[in-house]
Amino acid sequence: MSDLILEFYSEEIPSRMQKKASIDLKDIFTEGLVDAGLDYYKIETFVTPRRLALIVKGLSNSSKSYFEEKRGPRVGSPEKAIEGFARSLSIDKSSLFIKKEKKGDFYFHKVHQKGNSAKEIIVKISTDIISNFPWKKSMRWGEGNLRWVRPLKFVYCALFENDTSFEIIDLRLKEISSVNFTLGHYMISSKKIFPKNVNDYLKQLVENKVILDKSERKKIIVNSYKKLLINENSCVIDDEDLIDEIVGLVEWPVVFLGYIDEEFLTLPKEILQVTMKEHQKFISVINKETEVIDKFIVVANMLAEDGGEAILRGNSRVLRSRLKDAKFFFENDIKVIEKKGLSSFTNNLNKVTFHNKIGSQLDRVNNIEEISQKISKLLGVDNSKCRIAARLCKADLVTQVVSELPELQGVVGKIYADHEGIDHVISDSIREHYLPIKLNDRVPSQSISIVIAISDRINSLISFWKIKEKPTGSKDPFALRRSAIGLIRIIIENKLDINIGKLISSKLDNRDSNDLIKFLEDRFRVYLLEKDFDHDLLESCLQFSNLNNPYLIYLKIQSIKEFKKTDEFKKLMNSYKRPINILNAEEKKNNYVLSDAPSKELFEKNDEIVLYKKLIEVESEVSDALEKHDFKLALQSLSNFDDEIENFFKNVVISSDKTNIKINRLNLCYKIRKLMHSVAYFGQLNL
């Protein structure tokens, strides 16, 4: 058993790409080992700004040997063919054996295949990784054809049998050197590291100021700033994404606390926070008493002999310059608002292009306003407030602050609306209508915000469908998948009974409308599968329904999911299976075209009459339940005539000699099927 270290040392890997790279490396290498039949105990991957590394423990010395059966001619083939097969394998004909296959008896021979050495397998997997690693973006450099996220300096690949015996594996690459060492921190230590084993590799990296494990780097950062803030009556503003990004920027984190100049403390905290985050990667620190951001945490990637004074001075100087700009832009915007109002910015949106085939941002606002009037009517929301909110929702796009810091769109709009004294439900909608932005963001919950959020997303989807700019494959330059998921989440999580299908069909031709609804349906499936709804549930409810009303479809799926746990579900499925199976078989066999109106005059047996009467009763109950959107009651009603169906099939023969009687009984089955399918396609459900 051996241990393996594989390290790709490069120029700096972008922080945002490191997590996926680490996962991909593990997945690809694991798959390679499994496919090659090479056993191992444990695989770990690590990533820093300069290196992507993998450690495998308990690696077998070779893959297992195995027997492979080679098939030859069919029994009865000419003797020359059989002898030729044996000769091609360098064996005597007597070594062949006969084996029965579907297509007859054939001659076979077992060939013993030896396992490959661990070294051979590692070389193959590693070279494949270098040649085909799935970076989202990669580059070539120099005169070679190799692509990597940033120029790859060298590869260190070592196989350790024990503390004294190891082998450096040469990957035999033209563009990149395989070396027998790795390097420490590129700014602090220029010393080459020659590991003796895995533990020595990790130990020497730490001694040379490299912490390989990102979770350890994160722990150091968090513990350090907590220690710095013990006596400050302050706390950091939680921002996991920022901390994770910082972790990807440093190999040896050193944490310092800085103070913001007093002249900038009057800036809204959102502007302070985003300025520091986007431009400087500083963590904002807020005073617990005043709720003002007055400090910041800076994480350096190097040691400081002076205790960090020079680092803080340099960072504070750059921050001061950034905040001066932010304050200048903010004060200029406020002057305009106090003189002309926030609505004056809306008029300038005609100078900003939304899309060259769609129109300006003002055209976009006009469309959102029009749609919001229809949505507000459907939801019973104050349409006059929705009109004002729609007019203001994109106004901040032409403010100086958002022009400098686009991440603040919506946030700045709310700040300025509050400064002007606009109704808070309208100012809230300017910020909230962008939600959800990320996967786990909350959705807007106030009625005006909901209307504007839905209107904005529907307008975007309709506008891009009109100009045939739809997502293709992995490409989605206008984030339409995110808009669709956001629209679905807003509707479902706010329990909105709203038919968006009608609105979409009124704006698009029939083909594009159906295509957009299908696109929303696909996003709906993704959303529910992530919520742990089974695939069969989705198919049963979407088989005969378009996603015109997402919330009602969701309610139905949820109701069936719960109903499947009950004894009544088994009764329902028993009631469904027998008539549907017989009906499907007869339709396929005889090409029957059936109606849903069996004739009472043609019933010959009492069980037919009893079933028909019960069917009419259940049909009425189901119709009432569906009208009230009570899917649980509809399911219970469908489970209430299993006895009548059982007696019908027990005492009545479908295949009567009289054709009209047979057709009438099949029509009775058809009526059952039609009633069942008015709720869901139960044939898709797994028991």
Task: Please tell me about this protein's structure.
- There is one protein chain.
- This protein is α+β, with helices and mostly antiparallel strands.
- The protein has 25 helices and 17 strands.
- A hairpin with a 3-residue loop joins strand 16 and strand 17 (359-360).
Describe what is shown at a glance.
By secondary structure, the protein is α+β, with helices and mostly antiparallel strands. 51% of the residues lie in helices and 14% in strands.
User: Describe the biggest sheet?
Assistant: 6 strands, mixed
Number of helices: 25
Tell me the radius of gyration. Answer: 35 Å
- Beta-strand content: 5-15%
* Backbone shape: flat
Number of strands: 17
Give start-end ranges of low-pLDDT stretches. Answer: none
Average pLDDT works out at 92
Distance between the termini: 46 Å
Percent range for helical residues?
Answer: 40-55%
The structural class is: alpha+beta
What tags apply to this protein structure?
687 residues, alpha+beta
Would you spell out the secondary-structure blueprint of this structure?
Elements: E1 2-10, H1 18-36, E2 42-47, E3 51-59, E4 66-74, H2 79-88, E5 97-101, E6 104-113, H3 118-132, E7 152-160, E8 166-168, E9 177-179, E10 182-183, E11 192-193, H4 198-207, H5 214-228, E12 234-236, H6 240-247, E13 254-259, H7 269-280, E14 283-287, E15 293-300, H8 309-340, H9 343-347, E16 353-355, E17 359-360, H10 361-379, H11 383-392, H12 400-404, H13 411-420, H14 424-432, H15 447-466, H16 480-493, H17 500-507, H18 510-530, H19 535-542, H20 550-563, H21 567-590, H22 606-627, H23 631-638, H24 642-651, H25 659-677
Helix pairs in contact: 1-3, 7-8, 10-11, 10-15, 11-14, 11-15, 13-14, 14-15, 15-16, 16-18, 17-18, 19-20, 20-23, 21-24, 21-25, 22-23, 22-24, 22-25
